[in-house]
Design a protein that fits this description.
The protein is α+β, with helices and mostly antiparallel strands and 339 residues long. It is built from 12 helices and 6 strands. The protein has a 6-stranded antiparallel beta sheet, with helices on both faces.
Length: 339
């Protein structure tokens, strides 16, 4: 099972996302919602309000017998725990269960400062856990969903969260179980038996002297010296190397100039991304990045996506899920322009 973590700008958007998950067959035991809004009571507000999802989601819930999306106060129908000085913990997922268990024996201030630790226990990396902690402190709402969740698989959960304005929706695997280190047992030292010393006299012997060998003198032989005549080798004519034609540099074929229409990008942003609460200026680099991808060889988006994701996250780590729609739209915008 993988866990998907996302933040929402306010409790209303998070409530609509939870209602849509339940409408499509999700279950409460895999949903955790954390809100650090100690100055308000979101449960009380939810019980007196109407949880509204889209007509399609509410209709799907009616067909499956759930009908949650048009019910009164979906958060009021879920198990919740209000922690004074911290906020509210809703749902029956792993994160909500861990924080709820700690609330019985831990001060609220310690829980508020230790949410990052609970996130790390769920498999969230260190930097991402601290970012979610900062989002909670800033008044945003954190939603965690374990997938598969009921009848919903992982892509379905991600699609519903993005539909209702989820920010920084990222999936993480289960936490790695650390195996205990077994202390090494001391090894036994092998000792060889002592070797008895031999008396020195056993190795002594009488000195051996070899008789001298006579060496006869060698008479010197006269050495004849012959004059040596040197002859220069015949001169070989130098080969004529034909001149090679100088290659003419071919002009570099320029890529077609990008004619990105920022007004078109902004119109797409207002239609699809305005509800996220993130300004257009933060999405504009993603539109331009996708527009520039059109200079690559003609590929489908499915063939292009793995390499494009790696290039984007080198300069913008952990933002692919948030910016993927804008990057693809910029790429498709240029394709339609040159078609």
């Amino acid at each position: 099972m993988e866990n998907i973590f996302a933040t929402f700008a306010d409790i209303n958007l998070a409530e609509r996302a939870v209602a849509a998950l339940l409408d499509h067959g999700g279950t409460v035991d895999c949903i955790s919602l954390i809100s650090n809004t100690s100055n308000t009571d979101p449960v009380k507000a939810a019980q007196h309000g109407v949880t509204t999802t889209t007509g399609a989601d509410a209709g799907h819930g009616a067909l499956t017998g759930a009908g949650i999306g048009l019910g009164l106060g979906i958060l009021g129908a879920l198990a919740s725990l209000i922690i004074p000085g911290f906020g509210i913990v809703i749902g029956g997922g792993a994160l909500a269960t861990a924080i709820g268990a700690a609330a019985a024996t831990t001060a609220a201030g310690a829980i508020s400062g230790g949410v990052a630790g609970y996130l790390r226990d769920q498999g969230v990396p260190e930097m991402a856990a601290h970012q979610y902690q900062e989002d909670l402190n800033a008044g945003r709402v954190l939603l965690s969903v374990g997938a598969p969740c009921g009848k919903l698989d992982l892509p379905s959960v991600e699609e519903l969260l993005a539909k209702y304005g989820a920010l920084n929706a990222t999936r993480y695997g289960p936490p790695v179980q650390v195996q205990p280190v077994v202390a090494a047992q001391p090894s036994q030292t092998f000792q060889s038996p002592p070797v008895p010393a031999q008396p020195l006299q056993a190795f002594e012997s009488a000195p051996v002297q070899a008789p001298p060998v006579p060496v006869p003198p060698v008479p010197a032989q006269p050495r004849a010296v012959r004059p040596v005549q040197f002859q220069a080798p015949p001169t070989q004519p130098m080969p004529v190397i034909p001149e090679q034609p100088v290659p003419v540099e071919q002009p570099v074929r320029e890529q077609p100039a990008m004619q990105a229409d920022e007004a078109q990008f902004e119109a797409h942003y207002r239609t699809h991304m305005d509800g996220t609460g993130v300004p257009f200026a933060e999405y504009l680099p993603a539109y331009r990045f996708g527009y520039a991808l059109a200079c690559k060889p003609a590929l489908t988006w499915e063939e292009l996506q793995p390499d494009v994701r790696g290039e984007w996250e080198m300069g913008h780590p952990d933002t692919w899920d948030q910016m993927q729609m804008c990057i693809r739209y910029g790429w498709e915008s240029y394709k339609s322009h040159v078609a």
